[in-house]
From TrEMBL:
PANTHER family: 60 KDA LYSOPHOSPHOLIPASE, L-ASPARAGINASE. This is L-asparaginase. It comes from the Bacteria. Its EC number is 3.5.1.1. InterPro entries: Asp/glu_Ase-like_sf, Asparaginase/glutaminase-like, L-asparaginase_N, L-asparaginase_N_sf. It is an enzyme of class 3 (hydrolase). Gene3D superfamilies: L-asparaginase, N-terminal domain. Residues 4-155 form the L-asparaginase N-terminal domain. It comes from Chiayiivirga flava. Transmembrane segments: none annotated. GO terms for molecular function: asparaginase activity.
Length: 162
């Protein structure tokens, strides 16, 4: 991997809460700060494309994301995305040939102590370097194909679909 292209869409990983979980906004992308603090040994660029909770991502947003990724020269792409519609977006990105694309996010904001953000990002960085071209989801220490995973909202984790 010569360079990792990171595209951010918002989601819980970048949320800033004010008084409680009902009052928040999507802040600056956290992944660049996290990778810098960890002292990673690879080059990366961050393209912040939208700042939305994934429940508010539209078909037009997904097409913009698809077109942006397709236009990048990098073959390895990591996408930070909200968890509620991550699978839907991954299926749209599957139309992009010859790239390894891994989507990840967090169930708790990166700014929170004990957030799963750093772990999920680390899993995604490892996966994007090792997997064959295609689209994958990295959550909860697992790598999933989009058609074989779902978010279990009640348990607040990703699991096998079906």
């Amino acid at each position: 991997m010569n360079q990792l292209c990171i595209v951010t869409t918002g989601g819980t990983i970048d949320k800033i809460y004010f008084d409680d979980k009902s009052d928040y906004q999507i802040g600056d992308p956290q992944i660049g700060r996290i990778l810098d603090e960890l002292g990673v040994a690879f080059r990366f660029s961050v393209i912040p494309i939208i700042r939305k909770d994934s429940l508010h991502i539209t078909g037009e947003d997904r097409e913009l994301l698809r077109a942006t990724i397709a236009a990048q020269p990098a073959r390895h792409v990591l996408v930070t995305h909200g968890t509620d519609t991550m699978v839907e977006t991954a299926k749209v990105l599957a139309t992009i040939p010859d790239k390894t694309i891994v989507l990840t996010g967090a169930l708790n904001p990166a700014r929170f102590r004990g957030s799963d953000a750093e772990f999920n990002i680390g899993t995604a960085v490892g996966a994007v370097q090792c997997l064959a071209p295609g689209v994958y989801i990295a959550m909860n220490g697992r790598i999933w194909e989009p058609g074989k995973v779902r978010k279990n909202v009640a348990a607040n984790r990703f699991e096998a679909a079906g």
